[in-house]
Amino acid sequence: MADISHRGDLADHPDVTEMRDRYARVLGGRDVPLVDGPVFLVGLACAVSPWIVHFSGSQPALATHNLIMGVAIVVLALGFTVTPARMYGLSWAMCAIGAWLVVAPWIVGSGPDKGVIWTNAVLGGLTFLLGLVCTVAAMRSGRSGRGG
User: Fold this and answer.
1) pLDDT by residue (tens digit) across 114-125?
2) pLDDT the model gives residue 147
3) b/e 84-114 (16+ beta carbons within 10 angstroms → b)
4) Of 26, 41, 60, 126, which has the fewest Cβ atoms less than 10 A away?
5) Residues 6 or more apart in contact with residue 72 via CB below 8 angstroms
6) What is the tens place of the pLDDT at every residue in 41-83?
C-alpha cells in the first residue's frame, strides 16, 4: 500500500510548470467569485421573489415570468462557471434580461403595486449591471487572447 500521508509542497512535482500553465489557461485571468457568484444569487432571488414579496397570488403571470427569468439567469451563471470561454459570449443576454425585468411588471403583470415594481427594478438593475461586468470581462479576455 502506498504511503500518501505526507502532504508537502508541489514545487518538487515534475509537472508543476505544466499544471500552473493549465490552471492559468482554465481560469483565463478572470475573477470567478466576483462575477459568477453574484449572478447566481441574483437569479435565485429573481426566481423566488414572487413568494418572498408575496405577489404569486395577485400576479400569477408575473410570478411565472420571474421564476422562468430567474432560472435562466441561474443557468447563465452556471454556464459562466463551467464553460467560461463559450458562455461569456452570451453575457450581453444578461443586459437584455435585466432591462426586460424592469419593464415586465407593466407588460406581463396587471396593475403592479410598489413592492412588485421595486423588486423587479432592483433585480433588473442588478442583472443589467452584472451583465455589463460580464461583457467587459469577455471583451477584455478576448482582446488579451488575440494580442499574443
Assistant:
1) 999 999 999 999
2) 41
3) beebbeebebbbebbebbbebbeebbeebee
4) 26
5) 43, 97
6) 999 999 999 999 999 999 999 999 999 999 999 999 998 888 8
